[in-house]
Amino acid sequence: MNRKVKHVLGISGGKDSAALAIYMKSKYPSLGIEFYTCDTGKELDETYQLIRNLEVYLGLKIKILTATQNSSEAPFDHFLKMYGGFLPSSNARWCTKKLKLEPFERYVGDDPVVSYVGIRGDEDREGYISTKSNIQSIFPFRRNIWSEDVIRKLFSNSSIDQVHAIAKEIDFGEKKQKVLSLIAKKIDYFFSQKQKLERFLDTDVKGFNYLVFTFLKSTNYPLASETNFPLLDNDEMLVQSDIFKLLEESGVGVPAYYNKIDFDFEGVLGQYSRSRSGCYFCFYQQKIEWVWLYEQHPELFKKAMDYEKDGYTWGQSESLEELIKPERIAQIKDDYLKRQKRLQNKKSPYLLDILGEAEGEGCASCFL
After folding, report:
1. For the chain, what are the domain ranges?
2. Which fold has domain 6-146+234-250?
3. What is the per-residue pLDDT across 115-136, written as a single tens digit (0 to 9) for each?
4. Lesser CB count within 10 Å: N end or C end of the chain?
5. Are the C-beta atoms of residues 265 and 337 closer than 8 Å to each other?
């Protein structure tokens, strides 16, 4: 590729992407990263406030991408009509495709692009990997900054000789022989790709980064055309506590919907909040988050209810009308408090994330 590589970072409205914007702007200003957000028209007010706060910190405007052109309706409503009132769900995520992915891919076009994604080092999931060959994802908060597709190519048994030759030219210091032996070890039933990756990262993160970067020269990935890449020398791993610290110390602040709010259930004090960014009616919300929305933003809950018609509901098992019946709310709160107590007894340092996993994580593509 002869064209200049563009570096971009999507702001979802959540804590991780906001912290990543702060992190990249302060540590790697020379990259000239362009910041953008995909506006569905159905975000919480707190999300728009976060965008404004970030613009002040970054000293530039965040580009707003919308899925519709010349439409008087919010992007979500526009496409909902196109889909005949069929609400998106975990099995039919047309909202992600139409409101997030397509605007992003139109925005970058055919230019070579490196897209930075805010998946933390304490998360065990992969982020968005574009099917377009001109878009490459990088994960700065993880020990392994490279996407799964890159690692798969690097560790392919058919690439062993090539990678072995590259490694001989990289300064691994006293670890050189260990690295060469590890490269020669084939992936099989008894030795997985994940195990090989962890062995490399435990041995030398920076050396591994230089190995991958050199290997990319033989591919069509956007970074193949770059002579250097500043993240190669970064062996940091950021976890949830680091994210909150970045947001607070920068003055940007943590999105208000993460603030814990007290509630009382039969004499037991509990706390709830929203655990993810996205549309206020996101179908990936936990049941307790729907209750949070009903009790803290009743006007938005009513709007979410209004979308449920012709047999289409946000949840697969019940409608919002059924969910807010007093006895159902009581059951949801009771279940939530019991689950929270079990997790607290395990002394988990990542309680918020574990609670989020209890009813399923959101779509990774919503966190571009």
Report:
1. 6-146+234-250, 147-233, 257-358
2. Rossmann fold (3.40.50)
3. 999 999 998 887 666 778 899 9
4. N
5. yes
